[in-house]
Design brief:
This protein is mostly helical. Helix 1 packs antiparallel against helix 3, helix 1 runs parallel beside helix 4 and helix 3 runs antiparallel to helix 4. The protein is elongated, with a radius of gyration of 16 Å. The chain contains six helices and no strands. 77% of the residues lie in helices and 0% in strands.
Length: 162
């Protein structure tokens, strides 16, 4: 493993997850935690510990994907892969700000959908040349598809919150 791309990729994703976790509803004080707890949610909403468990795992996959993109010497899609990785990493950082600090459910739904599309694009541009990167990012695609549906359902169940 080449150290510099690994450090950049893993540090960027870890920072994004750490700051994103810090901006989550439980860390924003009692008013935000209460607001989020009291939102109407679909029956398939996972308990909070699932979110706390899944994101570090997904983050490892995203960091590995970023590393593979940065060290790609064969593909003419290297810049595209790095751009998709960087935008997805930024989206992970931005989502808690939009959803919990600003409490903009509609915008958070759009951001979740954009992240799902970015992750899908990352899989699409990597699938023929880099199966390891594709496998690392595929769980993110699946989770973000579910998260987009979940965020959309929360938005629709809480029309007065927009």
């Amino acid at each position: 493993m080449r150290p510099f791309p690994a450090i950049i990729s893993f540090s960027a994703v870890a920072t994004s997850l750490a700051i994103g976790g810090w901006m989550g509803p439980a860390r924003q004080g009692a008013a935000t935690a209460r607001w989020y707890r009291d939102l109407a949610k679909p029956d398939l909403t996972p308990p909070p510990y699932i979110f706390a468990t899944i994101w570090p795992i997904l983050g490892l996959g995203l960091a590995f994907y970023g590393y593979r993109a940065m060290t790609d010497t064969q593909s003419h899609l290297k810049r595209t892969r790095i751009t998709l990785w960087a935008l997805l990493t930024a989206g992970i950082l931005a989502f808690p700000l939009v959803a919990f600090q600003w409490r903009r459910l509609q915008v958070a739904t759009g951001l979740a959908a954009a992240m799902a599309l970015l992750a899908s694009g990352g899989v699409a541009v990597s699938c023929r040349r880099d199966i390891k990167a594709t496998c690392a990012l595929t769980p993110m695609v699946l989770w973000l598809g579910f998260a987009t549906w979940l965020q959309f359902a929360i938005w629709q169940k809480n029309p007065d919150e927009n």
